[in-house]
Amino acid sequence: MKKLSFRAAASAAVALAVLVPAAACSSGGSGSGSGGAENAKIAFLMPDIASTRYEQYDAPLFKAKIKELCGGCEVLYQNANADAAKQQQQATSALAQGVKAIVIDPVDSAAAASTVRMAQSRKIPVIAYDRPIPAAKADYYVSFDNEKLGAMIGKSLVDHLKETKAEGGLLQVNGSPTDAAAGLIKKGIHSAVDPSGFKLLAEFDTPGWEPAKAQGWVSSQISKFDGQIAGVVAANDGTGGASVAAFKAAGKKVPPVTGNDAELAAVQRVVAGDQYNTISKPIKIVAEAAAVAAHGFIQGKRPQGNTTLFGTPSELFTPTVVTRQNVKDLVKPGGALEPSQVCTGVYAAACAKLGIK
């Protein structure tokens, strides 16, 4: 047998020294065992700041539940501010920092597929949060049932317009064209609006869910269909609020306008009668469900979900439509929103009229 030279032997030793730690790191990356689970890092990557919910509710609630489940775990929270490339960089950075799981609400559902593949190649589980990732199978998906949500938004408005014998057609303000959840909401809205008997005058996919872009479009439609708009089906509270603002800026009476997310400003508009409805999706439910799932993965306990969407085991919850008729069930002491938050200034009298105190 040929003997190794001193230089060759030294090179082999260096290579072995490099490979052994790498193998050890790789073996722990999948979270397939409980080792290291109690001081793991978990990435929580949210899509934008246009919706106030992520900073005010999702991130704090997710962090609190992880702390409850795993006192030594660390949540690496990042917000991409509607920049898909930035979100990809945040995911890459999180992986470099050794996260054991990634929870991501994608800016761009198609672009996020590369994040899923990158993480899974390193045996790091990915939980799609709020928005699905159809082009790649995440390990888990946690959300409200967005298609049902869209149907609820549309049906609530249509039923109201029929009860009040409203005449005219509808505007439909959808969410971002790069958001798969927005596509599901849009599909649900159409399932209620298309057979309603009310003509769909026009619809718009709002880039990045940006309220300013929704308001600009609605303003142009007010001019085009002056006196013909019976209602506006808006896919979330940001686009709903933008629609209300467009009518007010045009000096027109605001028709019934929908929303979704039960943001504070939207609930105040519902109380005041400026926005017809919103959708209560208690963020605590999905944030905590995602935290439980992430903690399960890092312990090697894969969650099963209650359904499958886009080939991904999923946990979907059913939301609630909120109008002036039931808003006091949402706004109450100990409720999702406190009366002291909602019934301020000009909204105090409207709250009193609705029995909110």
From TrEMBL:
Subcellular compartments: Cell envelope
Domain Periplasmic binding protein intervals: 42-301
Primary localization class, coarse: other
Any GO CC annotation of this UniProt entry: outer membrane-bounded periplasmic space
Single GO molecular function: carbohydrate binding
Keyword Metal-binding among record annotations: no
Name of the protein in question: Simple sugar transport system substrate-binding protein/D-xylose transport system substrate-binding protein
